[in-house]
Amino acid sequence: MKNKGSRTERELLHMFWKEKWSVIRSAGSGVIPIPNPDLVAGNGKRLLAIECKSGKGRRYVKDKQVKELKEFSKKLGAEPLIAVRFDNEEWFFLTLNKLVKTKGNNLILDIKHAKKHGITFNELIGKYKQRKLK
Amino acid sequence: MKNKGSRTERELLHMFWKEKWSVIRSAGSGVIPIPNPDLVAGNGKRLLAIECKSGKGRRYVKDKQVKELKEFSKKLGAEPLIAVRFDNEEWFFLTLNKLVKTKGNNLILDIKHAKKHGITFNELIGKYKQRKLK
Q1: Does residue A119 have a pLDDT over 80?
Q2: What part of A 23-52 touches B (C-beta under 8 Å)?
Q3: In chain A, how long is the greatest CA-to-CA distance?
Q4: Could you tell me which of A50, A106, B15, B105 has the fewest CB atoms within 10 Å of its CB?
């Protein structure tokens, strides 16, 4: 699971890089865990702090993780986002207010919800809009 | 050398974290190398993109690395900085215009130059000034 997470994070890293964004991927927790997101990406106009989730079925985001992402992003001046990539699907990006809380106060992500409330990578980086404007 | 570099990078990561900055350390180049700095750190007022150098004697920064740091920082809206930690010395932080070019167009760092043109961690994060103002 950890390796798969790293693989999809690297995939997203390269997608931003290909679009000429500046992007950095976190080295992970290290000896003493320091809360930071998986990716930080910027293009001179927008700065994003992104927590990645990937896998087959439903994904969960811990309430604590959301709070840490908010705090991290605030100090960086970045927009906090959750990026989710279900198997055989493309990436979807959700703002934190689009997440649904479970009874246990954690947040839940499924493909239906992601497709309804999230935006695609091309929409995120503005490619789709540009194409429409032409 | 690689491990030592990682160790000093982690040291600096924790120094920022202890001062309540948001900080992320790069996972490194991965399969396809993507230019990004060792650390990105922000406190809500300042955003820094930091390339770390550490070791015993003189350190060199490649001209290409400086250009990449500049470009990365511009898109992130961050200040590009070189952080250098010589053995048994504290960290010194230098802006790119304070680096001296060698004949080979690379940039050179030694402890004398770092002490003269760099600032310490406490000066960087504003601790020293705050102490003086009290």
Answers
A1: yes
A2: 23-28, 30-32, 34, 36-37, 40, 42-44, 47
A3: 50
A4: B105
